[in-house]
Inverse folding.
C-alpha cells in the first residue's frame, strides 16, 4: 500500500459532489462513511497535499463523459486509494480562425497533474475515460492544425507517477478533427497514451492491468496538397523521457490507430500498440509483465505510408526486459498508392540498445498489407514487407535465456483488384527476430517460427515475395550466437514461387563478424538450416551433418522442464550431450542449470541432467473430452499424471508409462460426460 501523510482529516458521510468538494478543502486525508456514485458537474481541484481513501466502501467518481475528475495544482501531491473513477472527459479548445489561435491538446480525462506534482494510485479502477484534441480550422492558405490527445485517463507532464494494483480499461486518447481543405502542408495532431501519458520524472507501475485502451491519431478531410494525418503512440502507455519501471503488469488488447488518410494526404506514424518509450537518458525496465493481443497497424495514406513499429512495445532509448511474456501481439505494415511501408516487430521494435533476458515470445506476428493500385500511377506498389515476427532491433541488443515459438513474418499480398495495375507480394523476413544492428544471443530456443512470402497479384501471379530467415534474419552485423537451439523453423513460398532461404538463419551478404558456437540446427526446412557466411562456426549440430553421419538427434519436445522459459529437451543418447566447446559455454543453460553436467557442456540451450522432469501445464481439451499432455521422459518409465483446477491444489489421477515417443494421453471425464481437468502435469511416482 502506498502511503502519504496528511495535514488534516475529513470524512465524507454523504456521497455527493458538494460533500466531497467540501472535504477536500485544505487537503489532508479524506475517507468515506458512505458507498455510492458521485456524479461530477465540474473537476475537483487539488490545491494542497491530499489523500483520498475509499477503503471499506464502494465509491465511484463519475465524470459523466463531460468533465475531468481531478486537477492537481503544480508541486502538489494527490494519493488515491481503493476508488473507481469512470467516464472522465477533457477536450482541447478548437482552433479559432478569427484570432489565429491553434487548437489545444486534450490531457488527462480522469486526472491532470501540474508541473512538479505527484500522483500515487493504489487499488483503483480507471474505466471509460477520454481525451480529445481540439479541432483544426481554416480552408484558405493559412490553416490551423488540430490539437493532440495525451493520456486518456492520466496526464503527468513533469512529476512523479506511482501506480500499484490498479486497472485501466476502455480509455482512449483521440487527436482532434483536422478540419476542412487547405493549401498549406501541416501536421495534424497525435494520440499519445490511451490510458496514461507521462513525459518527465519518475514512472513506477506495479501489478497493474491495462485492457482495451486506445491511442488514436487525429483525422483529416481531403486536402489539396499532402499534409500528414495524426500519429499514434502507446495504446495504453506513453512514457516520454520519464524513468520507467513496469513490474508485474499486464497489457491486454491495447491498440494504436493512425488517423484516416483520404485523397492527397499522408499517414502519420504508428508505434507501440501497448507501450511507447520515448528518447532520453532515463532508464527503462520491464520485468515479470505480460503483453497479449496488442496491435499496431502502420499508417495507410494516399501519398505516404508509414511503418508499424512494435505490436506491443516501441522504444527509442536503452531499456531492459526480463522474465516477461509476449503472446499474440501483432504489427502491420502501411500502404499508399505510391509505396508500401513494412511492419516491424510483432512484439517489440527497438531503435536503441536493449537487453532481453528470460522472456517468452509466442504466436506474435509481423504482417505486410496488400499492395494498392491507381490508374494514375504506372506501377502499383507491391505488398508491404513483414520484418521480425517477434522482435525487430535497430540498436545493439543481447538476448539471453529466452524462448521464441510460432512467431511469423508474413509478407503482404499483391494488389488483386481487377482493372488496377498488378503488383507483387512483399517479403517476409525473420519469423522470430530481425536484426539490423549488433546482436548477441545465447541460451535461447527458437522453434516453429515461420517467414512467409507475400502472394503476388491474383490474376497474373507475377513477382511473388520472398521468405528469408524462418527464425532469424540478419540485415547487419556483427552477430554472436552461442548455445542456441533452432528446431523446426520454416520459410514458406507462395503458389507462384518466390525465393525461400535459410529456414533457421538468413544473413545478408554484407553481414560480417558472424559467429555460431555450440548450437543445434535441426529440421529447419525448406531452405536449409542457414544461408550466409559465419566467420566462426564451431561445435554445431546440423541437419546436414546428422544426415551424413546417420545419427538421430534425440531431441525431446518443447515444454516446461524448469526455469523461467520453455525449452527443447535432450533425450538420453543425444549426440548433443557433452559435445560442446566448454570454454565457450555459458555458466548455466536456459533453465539456470549449471554447466557442464558430465564430461563437457551440451550443445544447444538445454543441459541434459538425467533424470529430469517436465512440469507441463495443458489447457487444451480434445473434442471427445480428453486432455493431452506432451511429455518427453525416458521411454518405458512410469510417471504420475496429476490434475488441478486452480494450479494450487494437485491430485494424483493415474500412473502412466511413457511410450517411445514420449506421449501421455489422459482422458478423465471422457466417459462420464463430465468436464475434464483444466490443468495437467507429470510427476515422478
Amino acid at each position: 500500500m502506498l502511503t502519504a501523510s496528511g495535514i488534516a482529516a475529513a470524512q465524507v458521510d454523504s456521497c455527493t459532489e458538494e460533500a466531497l468538494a467540501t472535504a477536500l478543502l485544505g487537503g489532508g486525508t479524506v475517507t468515506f462513511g458512505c458507498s455510492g456514485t458521485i456524479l461530477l458537474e465540474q473537476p475537483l481541484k487539488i490545491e494542497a497535499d491530499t489523500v483520498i481513501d475509499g477503503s471499506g466502501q464502494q465509491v465511484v467518481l463519475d465524470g459523466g463523459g463531460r468533465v475531468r475528475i481531478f486537477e492537481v495544482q503544480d508541486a502538489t501531491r494527490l494519493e488515491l486509494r481503493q476508488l473507481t473513477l469512470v467516464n472522465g472527459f477533457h477536450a482541447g479548445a478548437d482552433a479559432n480562425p478569427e484570432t489565429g489561435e491553434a487548437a489545444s491538446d486534450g490531457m488527462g480525462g480522469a486526472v491532470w497533474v501540474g508541473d512538479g506534482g505527484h500522483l500515487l494510485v493504489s487499488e483503483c479502477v480507471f474505466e471509460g475515460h477520454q481525451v480529445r484534441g481540439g479541432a483544426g480550422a481554416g480552408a484558405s492558405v493559412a490553416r490551423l492544425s488540430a490539437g493532440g490527445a495525451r493520456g486518456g485517463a492520466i496526464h503527468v507532464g513533469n512529476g512523479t507517477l506511482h501506480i500499484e494494483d490498479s486497472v485501466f480499461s476502455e480509455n482512449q486518447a483521440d487527436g482532434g478533427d483536422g478540419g476542412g481543405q487547405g493549401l498549406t502542408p501541416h501536421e495534424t495532431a497525435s494520440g499519445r497514451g490511451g490510458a496514461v501519458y507521462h513525459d518527465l520524472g519518475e514512472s513506477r507501475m506495479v501489478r497493474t492491468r491495462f485492457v482495451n485502451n486506445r491511442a488514436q491519431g487525429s483525422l483529416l478531410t481531403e486536402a489539396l496538397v499532402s499534409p500528414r494525418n495524426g500519429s499514434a503512440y502507446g495504446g495504453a502507455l506513453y512514457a516520454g523521457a520519464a524513468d520507467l519501471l513496469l513490474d508485474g503488469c499486464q497489457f491486454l488488447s491495447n491498440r494504436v490507430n493512425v488517423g484516416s488518410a483520404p485523397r492527397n494526404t499522408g499517414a502519420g506514424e504508428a508505434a507501440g500498440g501497448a507501450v511507447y518509450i520515448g528518447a532520453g537518458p532515463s532508464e527503462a525496465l520491464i520485468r515479470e509483465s505480460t503483453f497479449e493481443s496488442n496491435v499496431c497497424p502502420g499508417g495507410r495514406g494516399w501519398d505516404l505510408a508509414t511503418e508499424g513499429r512494435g505490436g506491443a512495445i516501441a522504444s527509442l532509448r536503452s531499456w531492459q526486459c526480463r522474465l516477461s511474456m509476449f503472446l499474440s501481439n501483432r504489427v502491420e505494415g502501411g500502404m499508399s498508392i505510391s509505396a508500401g511501408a513494412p511492419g516491424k516487430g510483432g512484439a517489440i521494435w527497438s531503435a536503441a540498445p536493449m537487453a532481453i533476458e528470460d522472456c517468452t515470445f509466442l504466436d506474435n506476428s509481423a504482417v505486410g498489407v496488400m499492395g494498392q493500385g491507381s490508374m494514375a500511377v504506372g506501377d502499383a506498389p507491391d505488398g508491404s514487407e513483414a520484418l521480425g515476427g517477434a522482435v525487430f532491433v535497430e540498436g545493439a541488443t543481447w538476448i539471453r535465456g529466452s524462448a521464441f515459438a510460432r512467431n511469423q513474418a508474413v509478407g503482404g499480398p499483391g494488389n488483386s483488384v481487377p482493372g488496377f495495375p498488378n503488383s507483387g507480394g512483399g517479403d517476409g523476413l525473420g519469423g522470430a527476430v530481425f536484426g539490423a544492428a549488433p546482436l548477441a544471443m545465447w541460451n535461447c530456443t527458437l522453434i516453429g517460427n515461420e517467414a512467409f512470402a507475400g502472394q503476388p497479384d491474383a490474376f497474373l501471379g507475377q513477382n511473388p515475395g520472398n521468405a528469408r530467415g524462418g527464425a532469424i534474419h540478419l540485415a547487419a552485423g556483427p552477430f554472436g550466437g552461442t548455445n542456441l537451439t533452432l528446431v523446426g523453423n520454416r520459410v514458406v513460398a507462395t503458389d507462384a514461387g518466390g525465393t525461400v532461404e535459410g529456414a533457421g538463419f538468413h544473413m545478408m551478404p554484407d553481414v560480417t563478424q558472424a559467429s555460431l558456437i555450440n548450437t543445434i540446427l535441426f529440421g529447419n526446412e525448406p531452405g536449409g538450416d542457414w544461408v550466409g557466411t559465419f566467420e566462426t562456426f564451431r561445435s554445431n549440430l546440423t541437419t546436414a551433418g546428422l544426415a551424413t553421419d546417420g545419427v538421430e538427434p534425440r531431441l525431446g519436445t518443447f515444454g516446461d522442464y524448469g526455469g523461467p522459459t520453455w525449452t527443447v529437451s535432450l533425450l538420453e543418447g543425444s549426440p548433443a550431450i557433452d559435445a560442446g566447446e566448454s570454454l565457450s559455454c555459458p555458466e548455466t543453460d536456459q533453465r539456470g542449470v549449471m554447466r557442464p553436467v558430465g564430461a563437457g557442456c551440451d550443445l544447444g540451450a538445454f543441459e541434459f541432467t538425467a533424470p529430469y522432469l517436465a512440469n507441463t501445464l495443458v489447457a487444451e481439451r480434445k473434442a471427445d473430452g480428453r486432455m493431452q499432455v506432451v511429455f518427453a521422459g525416458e521411454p518405458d518409465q512410469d510417471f504420475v499424471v496429476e490434475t488441478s483446477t486452480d494450479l494450487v491444489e494437485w491430485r494424483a489421477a493415474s500412473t502412466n508409462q511413457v511410450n517411445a515417443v514420449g506421449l501421455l494421453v489422459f482422458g478423465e471425464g471422457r466417459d462420464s460426460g463430465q468436464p475434464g481437468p483444466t490443468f495437467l502435469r507429470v510427476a515422478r511416482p
About this structure: The mean pLDDT is 85. The CA atoms of residues 344 and 387 lie 5 Å apart.
